[in-house]
Amino acid sequence: MKFILAGKFPILLTLSLISAAYLPYIFEVFAIHNDYTLWGYDNQSGCCHPESIHLIYIGRLLGSVLLNLHVMFFVDVSDVAWARLVAGVIMFLIAMLLTRHMVRDAGMPYRVSIFLGSWIVLLPASVAYILWMMNFIPGPLTALLSILLYPLIRHRPEDRPTRWHLGKRQILGYMLLFGLFFVYPPNTMLYLAVPFSAALFSTREKWAQRRFDFIQQFVMAGLFSILYTLLVKLVQTHWFSHLSVFQNHWVGAQYKFEFSINPLDFWPRFEKFLELLFSLWGTVEFSIIGPWIVGCIIL
Hints:
By secondary structure, this protein is mainly α. The chain contains 15 helices and no strands. It has helices at residues 2-5, 8-27, 52-57, 61-70, 80-106, 110-121, 124-131, 137-153, 168-180, 185-188, 193-201, 204-240, 244-247, 267-277, 286-298. The mean pLDDT is 77.
């Protein structure tokens, strides 16, 4: 608390900036996209939202449970504004927590850290998480829990620096973190912003203390990603395919799992990714400029 209250002007400026961006979402009465699915069934019963089966099938079992609990609180469209208010407050807390970690772990100046933390929560995806009530669970909530778990898994300087040493604190933290993968994997990775900022902005002396934490967090994130993918794509999906409730369930191609060692098989998907990334080039035949862009990226 002492840290957060230090330097009132940057805090107030950050709060004003975030409030100015999100204020219309609080006072306007509206819902968007699948927010309206709340009133297509008895959401007060706690089960079952129309997207529940889909979320379970694609590996977000915990996210499905939390979604059904979350939507129980909404009776009218005007109630959705309260969800956006809570999400806005959580985004502010995320900005403060990121600021705290950047100062403590990366040794960054306080004012620079608070503006970087604010910019993260003002990215288009973050704004969408406020605007879109159905994204509260996979969005702000998952991101906040990810940042809150970082102190548990953080490798401290007093820990053994030369080899893996996971104490009870870190084992508990990693277990909880892996559980967040079953809510929404991408936002579970937000905690990596802390060791990554340390790698980018630390002094040589500070980096010598934080280097092992950087390696440990990215290695564990990679292992968790592989384990989660194997559990969902190879174990869970195969098992669910034999259950009647999932047999007629359709999922898009993006959720299907394929394995190939031929690098040419990845080009069509990589081309689609680059088309989205460089969408302003949409009037140009991408097969012409695609190799050029890839060459520039490699160089």
